[in-house]
Amino acid sequence: LPAPGTVEFKNVTFGYPGAEAPVLSDISFTAKPGQTTAIIGSTGAGKTTLLNLIPRLYDATEGEILIGGLPLRELGRETISQNISSVPQRPYLFSGTIASNLRFGAQEAEEEDLWEALRIAQADGFVAEREGQLESKISQGGTNVSGGQRQRLCIARALAAKPKTYLFDDSFSALDVSTDAKLRAALVEPTKDAAVIIVAQRVSTITEADQILVLDHGEIVARGTHEELLESSETYQEIVTS
Ligand code: CTP
Ligand code: MG
């Protein structure tokens, strides 16, 4: 079997229930542990939809998704949530404390582990400044922290769970360029044995990715490294220069 955490899409097609045209057509790729797979493409291309198939928010209409070589449909909810952490495009915090939000996928985590996750996510500074720190209250939906802070807390939550597969949906775009760079540098070590899939808007976020998939109208129109795509893909060149 492929290593745990490996995500394989085999000719996956998906349409939203009731919709006529599929949103994703014939998607095939493998995201391996120890590698970063980046997905880039214009708004509405299907990037979020593709990521959402992995924790089974929806099931593929055709084709198959395998996790560590096992069909996703045969994995239980618990196995999926224990192995895959997802930072959604609109990150969500629950009413409760910062600690309870961070322990969502890691009930056993010690305070020390939570601080470590916060440090990596570049979120330790503002948490340390809040009254009560880890015990400070988050209001429903996380409305009492900024969008960028919410995003970093959700990244810390994903890290605290120590999954085999990470899904980041546009998780770095609300950050300024310097915080984005620091965060991604800090992520290298803790995610080095995991499969990391990143949806990005900014090309600078993904130039180091092991493979980049260029998605256009639900299809992978090009794939390769940044350098390869600069040579081979007009769509990618347009994204880079836009
Ligand atoms: N869509 C839909 N029903 C949903 C979500 C999305 O019909 N519940 C449609 C959208 O209207 C769009 C397509 O599916 O035509 C792909 O949407 P999405 O995967 O969200 O696109 P992204 O590439 O993630 O777009 P963005 O960069 O804006 O996040
Ligand atoms: Mg999206």
Structure description:
By secondary structure, the protein is of the alpha/beta class. It has a single domain, classed as Rossmann fold, CATH 3.40.50.300. It is built from 9 helices and 12 strands. The strands form 3 sheets. A 6-stranded mixed sheet has the order 6-9-10-3-11-12, sandwiched between helices. Helix 8 packs across helix 9. Magnesium ion binds next to helix 1.
Architecture blueprint of SSEs:
Layout: E1 7-14, E2 24-31, E3 36-40, H1 47-53, E4 62-67, E5 70-71, H2 77-83, E6 84-87, E7 96-97, H3 98-102, H4 111-120, H5 124-129, E8 137-138, H6 147-160, E9 165-169, H7 177-187, E10 195-199, E11 211-216, E12 219-224, H8 226-232, H9 234-241
Parallel strand pairs: 3-10, 3-11, 6-9, 9-10
Antiparallel strand pairs: 1-2, 1-4, 4-5, 7-8, 11-12
Helix pairs in contact: 4-6, 8-9
Bound molecules: cytidine-5'-triphosphate (CTP) and magnesium ion.
Magnesium ion is lined by residues 47-48, 89, 169.
What is the structure about, briefly put?
The chain is of the alpha/beta class and 242 residues long. The chain has helices at residues 47-53, 77-83, 98-102, 111-120, 124-129, 147-160, 177-187, 226-232, 234-241, and strands at 7-14, 24-31, 36-40, 62-67, 70-71, 84-87, 96-97, 137-138, 165-169, 195-199, 211-216, 219-224.
Overall, the morphology is globular
Radius of gyration: 18 Å
Number of strands: 12
- SSE order: EEEHEEHEEHHHEHEHEEEHH
Largest sheet: 6 strands, mixed
Strand content: 15-25%
Q: How would you classify the helix and strand content by structural class?
A: alpha/beta
Which strand order spans the largest sheet, edge to edge or round the barrel? 6-9-10-3-11-12
Report how far apart the termini are.
41 Å
CATH class: Alpha Beta
Proportion of helical residues: 25-40%
